[in-house]
Amino acid sequence: MKYWLFKSEPETYSIDKLKKEKSTLWDGVRNYQARNFMINDMQLGDLVLFYHSNANPPGIIGLAEISELAQPDPSQFNKSSPYYDPKSSIDKPRWH
Fold first, then answer.
1. pTM, rounded to two decimals
2. How far is residue 46 CA from its own chain's centroid?
3. What is the Cα–Cα distance from 67 to 60, expressed in whole angstroms?
4. Cα separations (Å) of 58 from 31, 50, 75?
């Protein structure tokens, strides 16, 4: 089992929202190293340290668990999304 640090601003996605939803797709990741960790290394049952950035005080606010393996980030295909990537295709997604 591995531990991963997932960072989110509470105004964007809070630990309270995760508790309410029970599960989420971690989208908007646009860092190649982070993407590669998500695709190649994260396994079911690995634990996530949920970090609130841009909070007062910032820090680890909760613990979560990887419940699904990486899948393509749908925001890369949405032209109205700030995470849209015109170089991505459904056959060859760049982001997971």
1. 0.86
2. 14
3. 20
4. 21, 11, 27
| Token pair belonging to 4 | 């991963």
The confidence score (pLDDT) of residue 70 equals: 95
Is 69 inside any structural domain?
yes
Asked if residue 55 is part of any domain, the answer here is yes
Mean pLDDT (the chain, rounded): 96
CATH number at residue 36: 3.10.590.10
The boundaries of the domain holding residue 22 are 3-77
Q: What integer is the mean pLDDT of 20-27?
A: 95
Of 42, 48, 46, 68, the closest CA to residue 60 belongs to 48
Residues 26-55: tens digit of each pLDDT: 999 999 999 999 999 999 999 999 999 999
Q: What is the pLDDT of residue 61?
A: 97
> Is 50 part of a structural domain of the chain?
yes
Bridge partner residues of 8 (DSSP): 52
Residue with tokens 């295709």: 89
> What one-character-per-residue DSSP string does 80-95 give?
TSTT--TT--SSS-S-
